[in-house]
Amino acid sequence: MESTFSSPAEAALQREAGAAGLVTPLADLDRVYELERVVGFVRGLGCQRVALQFPDRLLGDAGVVAARLEESTKSKMFILGDTAYGSCCVDVLGAEQAGAQALVHFGPACLSPPARPLPTAFVLGQRSVVLELCARAFEAQNPDPTAPVVLLSEPACAHALEALATLLRPRYLDLLVSSPALPVPVGSLNPEPEFLERFGRRFPLAPGRCLEEYGAFYVGGSEASPDPDLDPDLSRLLLGWAPGRPFSSCCPDTGRTQDEGARAGRLRARRRYLIERARDARVVGLLVGTLGVARHREALAHLRNLTQVAGKRSYVLALGRPTPPKLANFPEVDVFVLLACPLGALAPWPSGSFFRPVLAPCELEAACNPAWPPPGLAPYLTHYADLLPGSPFHVPLPPPESELWDTPDVSLITGELRPPPSWKPSNDSGCSALTLRPQLELAESSPAASFLSSRSWQGLQPQLGQTPVKGAVSGRRGIAIAYEDEGSS
Q: In terms of DSSP H, where are the helices of 310-439?
């Protein structure tokens, strides 16, 4: 039985992490896991202890991969298969506990910068792509050879994009190929400073061009699970891509294509609904997700200041991976905001499973900052670092005397007029929960206490000396469908 605040230890011990046998054939092991490149990475650093991070579905290959790397590099390999939060983030803490000098991350990755510097190599995998079928699917979806189109893919298919572009370039004049935004090794110069980085990818845009001019052709997914909501990487592309531009996806195995415009519209509509819920909320729960991504403390302080300026009360909750039983213990919270990596913030949740909606930081920014969004900004940002100072997308809060704070706002859910936030500048950096009463008494204003006092049932109360003593009596026997004192009917 799951605990209300944390997952029990028995669940981690009894969970089946991966198949006992090999997932990948031995003949394809070197190609899929790029063992030659990993060996060069370890030898170049001269590391004696290296951590290998695998997602659960690839743990069947972990033993063989680690043995081959140890034999080739003569270094000690440690397998990290029990990441505390999500397998897409680099588990720097686990690597440090093993005393590792470097880390190799296998499988899909969010490519977020880690909170602590550690030499890291990413092996995204190499899924087979039928180039001829994908090329015909691209031609069917893009009949105009002059229309600008970007080739996108899931991480495991990124190796085939350049070969696909080679088949298409003789006909298509304006074709852009994206690549994963792998981190640049420490101490090396970036050979491609002009490349635009967005959505965990690099785009080699020509001078004077912008990404909003291009349509998209995505290679990835599977016909077995055609729902894009199950893939957070595709979800952030659909949310952040410029509205009105064509976006189609192609299965790399069969070449089956699908227009993603309708699905992108549903995702954006869902996000607009969550923004309205955040504007109506009085109490916001800030869920601290993974701690392995850089600038998470700065982002948490930014969100707390954002809710305070908007006249809302926020609570910081560190519960690990959010589950419905954990969040149901805080019914006074109106909405939750998950502070995690771009893929973790958009991770799919079962429909209707949570008592309150779970939002991403961008939705809270849009709900509490009246200056959001600025002109020309993409409709949705996927990483909380884009909201912080120093980012080209950062939008500072308007000053207290700005007319934006006094703009009338009507809730699209309740139909009621929202009062403007009473924001007054203060130089006191301490707690602002204490208010001075006319009787010169200090009292703490707590929305949680107000919510508890409004409930008809507030828990078991002893009421010592107020309950009469009664003797114990024999209860009913049997099961609910047929007690012993009930006649047959």
A: 324-327, 342-345, 361-368
Q: Is 348 helix (H, G, I), strand (E, B) or coil?
A: coil
User: Structure tokens of 356?
Assistant: 């309150």
User: How far is the first Cα of the chain from the last one, in angstroms, to the nearest whole number?
Assistant: 37
Neighbours of 399 (CB within 10 A): 10
Global confidence as pTM:
0.77
Length of the chain: 489
153 forms bridges with which residues in the sheet?
A: 219
What six digits make up the tokens of 296? 């998470």
Spell out the per-residue pLDDT of the chain, length 489, in tens.
Answer: 445 555 555 555 555 554 445 578 888 888 888 899 999 999 988 889 999 998 888 888 888 999 999 999 889 999 987 666 678 888 888 888 888 899 999 988 888 888 788 889 999 888 889 999 999 999 999 999 999 999 999 988 999 999 999 999 999 989 999 999 887 665 555 545 568 888 889 999 888 888 889 999 999 887 655 554 568 888 889 988 888 899 999 999 888 998 998 888 888 888 889 999 999 999 999 998 877 788 888 999 999 999 998 889 999 998 878 888 888 889 889 999 998 888 888 876 654 578 899 999 989 998 998 888 765 555 577 788 888 888 888 888 888 878 888 777 888 888 888 877 765 444 444 444 555 555 545 455 566 666 666 766 666 677 777 878 888 888 888 888 878 877 765
The CA distance from 221 to 253, in Å, is 9
Partners of 120 in beta bridges: 103
